[in-house]
Design a protein that fits this description.
This protein is of the alpha/beta class and 86 residues long. The chain has one domain. The protein is built from two helices and four strands; from the N terminus they run E-H-E-E-H-E. The chain has helices spanning 13-28, 58-66; strands at 2-7, 32-36, 46-52, 81-85. Strand 1, helix 1 (13-28) and strand 2 form a beta-alpha-beta unit. The protein is globular and about 35 Å long. The two termini are 15 Å apart.
């Protein structure tokens, strides 16, 4: 099985670390991970989108296009970073 991974062009250090762990976990379970420069470039049946919820990256774009929101409140203050799968 193949998964496309679309993320911000310049992810922060914490985001890079999280994505590296995700990629390692997927590959260890036999998944092929394809990097995608944008949502349009993601061609796999499963797409993981990671990045800031604001700006012009794929995560922000997906949230705008779908009208998606992020949880707020105790333990859910994700106003700057998120990961979304479609």
């Amino acid at each position: 099985m193949t998964v496309s991974l679309a993320q911000d062009a310049s992810p922060g250090r914490v985001s890079q670390h999280g994505v590296a762990i995700l990629q390692e976990a997927l590959r260890s379970r036999g998944w092929n991970v394809q990097p995608a420069a944008s949502l349009d470039a993601a061609t796999a049946p499963l797409v993981v989108v990671a990045g800031a919820s604001t700006g012009n990256g794929p995560a922000a774009q997906l949230l705008r296009e779908t009208g998606g929101t992020l949880p707020t409140g105790a333990g859910g203050d994700h106003d700057q970073k998120n990961a979304v799968a479609r």
